[in-house]
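Researcher: Quick test of sequence recovery. Tokens follow.
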């Protein structure tokens, strides 16, 4: 495909920095296990599909073939003929059919099947590049909750849930049912979705956490144990993340808030983890809350992203590096270890267990320290744990 000249120069130069991937011995020092792609743009989402990695950037969508150094595609509103409506991409998820679902900043939810883009909005769906011939209007109340999409998740029944700034929308293949404050959400601005072993939904919002089991809603806030105590609140060190907020002067995102939940995950013990805007990370075991902060070894108190790796280890992307929890204490990797930047907005784990960290300026790949050649062979044969 044709890529605009500024992006072509940028991405070819960036991909030239990616070394050939190789197997690493488990006893090699951490510094030897890092490789980077310098995108010169924020990497807000990471997804994997076979040998491809998909990156959601402040600048579009990038696909890279991990078997090569220079096989990539970059998708923007300009080079897709307007099929992708926004350059701000906050989430990418791949469904069981291989379709890529792309949540954008102000451009709705886009689906990419490998050749064609389809956009879903509060008003209708179809191809923005052929609006007159393909666009289908939604009946009232059947559209996507909002044009601003921050997370996408598929539950155990294969249903897609979409986090927006006006609630969480459930897609039935034809239209959306949107749940907001009137239905039971603690706040309509939804940033994160996690699904536990019982297929219960957990939504991270600007007003706390809401649990939904399909019929009953229950919310938790700082008063229940979420986030740091108010006297420990710190300032947001990255002021480029918006002020005013939501194009609404009454909403500010420059100071931390323990009720402002921007990431969520469920670990192997079915514990729920919620990353907050300056209030650290909180774990809920179903009855009690435990909050961890920089004082406990967490890299930073702004926790933008989370993932659980193949060994069951929880990783958290913060404003002070990426941290992992060994069950007792936190350990953190920063630029001193090989991370390209200390603001970690996204985390992905590939099929071989390697961790990928999206930052303000690019992606760092950290090889699984347990990937000896023999273990890699076991993994490919389906024999690894």
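Model:
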């Amino acid at each position: 495909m044709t890529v605009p000249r500024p992006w072509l120069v940028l991405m070819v130069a960036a991909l030239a920095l990616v070394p050939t991937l190789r197997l690493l011995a488990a006893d090699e020092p951490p510094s030897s296990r890092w490789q980077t792609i310098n995108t010169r743009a924020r990497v807000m989402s990471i997804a994997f599909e076979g040998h491809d990695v998909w990156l959601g950037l402040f600048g579009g969508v990038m696909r890279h073939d991990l078997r090569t150094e220079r096989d990539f595609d970059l998708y923007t509103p300009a080079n897709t003929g307007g099929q992708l409506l926004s350059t701000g991409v906050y989430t990418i998820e791949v469904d069981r059919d291989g379709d890529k679902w792309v949540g954008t900043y102000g451009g709705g939810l886009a689906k990419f099947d490998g050749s064609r883009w389809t956009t879903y909005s509060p008003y209708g769906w179809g191809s923005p590049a052929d609006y007159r011939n393909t666009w289908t209007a939604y009946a009232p109340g059947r559209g996507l909750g909002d044009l601003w999409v921050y997370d996408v998740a598929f539950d155990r029944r294969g249903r897609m849930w979409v986090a927006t700034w006006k609630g969480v929308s459930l897609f039935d293949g034809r239209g959306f049912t949107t749940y907001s404050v009137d239905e039971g959400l603690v706040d309509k601005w939804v940033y994160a979705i996690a699904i536990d072993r019982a297929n219960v939904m957990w939504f991270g919002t600007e007003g706390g956490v809401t649990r939904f089991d399909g019929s009953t809603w229950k919310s938790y806030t700082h008063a229940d144990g979420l986030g740091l105590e108010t006297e420990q609140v710190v300032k947001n060190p990255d002021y480029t993340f918006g002020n005013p907020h939501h194009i609404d002067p009454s909403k500010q995102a420059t100071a931390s808030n323990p009720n402002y939940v921007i990431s969520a995950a469920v670990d192997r013990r079915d514990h729920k983890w919620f990353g907050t805007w300056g209030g650290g990370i909180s774990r809920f075991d179903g009855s009690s809350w435990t909050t961890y902060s920089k004082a406990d070894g967490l890299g930073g108190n702004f926790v933008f992203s989370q993932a659980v790796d193949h060994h069951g280890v929880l990783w958290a992307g913060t404003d002070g590096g990426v941290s992992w929890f060994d069950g007792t204490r936190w350990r953190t990797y920063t630029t001193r270890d090989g991370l390209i930047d200390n603001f970690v907005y996204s985390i992905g784990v590939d099929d071989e267990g390697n961790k990928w960290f999206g930052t303000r300026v690019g992606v760092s790949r950290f090889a699984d320290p347990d990937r000896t050649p023999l273990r890699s062979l076991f993994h490919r044969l389906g024999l690894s744990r």
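The chain has three helices and 30 strands.
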